[in-house]
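Final report, Chapter 2: Outcomes

The project's central promise was a pipeline that accepts a single protein chain and returns its three-dimensional structure in a standardized token representation, suitable for archiving and comparison. That pipeline is now operational. To close this chapter, we reproduce one record exactly as it appears in the project archive, with the input sequence first and the structure output second.
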Amino acid sequence: MRFHFAFIIALITAPVILTAQDNLGAYEDRVAVGDVMARYVWAVDSLDAEGYVAVFTEDAVIDSNGNISKGREEIRKIVTSLIGRRDDNEAKGLPPSNLYHLISNVRITFPKPGEALHQSYWQTVLRGEDGKMTAAAMGRSRDRLVKNNGKWLIQERKLTVFTD
């Protein structure tokens, strides 16, 4: 009787387990998606505008709490404005205002072939006028990546900044 019960449970749960495992994607794709997201963070933190736009599709969209940037040219302005702010601060003798991102609780899934979903929580820190590092903002992100010609790129980035 126990064998029959275990067999029935296995038959019922097998499709759920197989579906969940299929949704995790191939190892190489998971590593590649993780690498794209790491390059994204390193590029913005190092104020590398070209490296930053290189991880996005030509028609990418970033939605940061309703502030929309469409296409690589608008997305590039995100980093070039950070460069301008840094330069203005340096001219005034203030700390450069560079942001440093901390990413946690990453979840990568593959809803369909050629598409990945990267979700995480993030926090940014910066050096204050007193020279101490302090939390600047925190929130969560939801990135949809697509695989084009064997290369993963971000097509949609939704940032939710926690404001309370």
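Archive annotation: The domain at 26-161 is CATH 3.10.450.50 (Nuclear Transport Factor 2; Chain: A,).
This record, like all others produced under the grant, will remain available to the consortium after the project formally closes.
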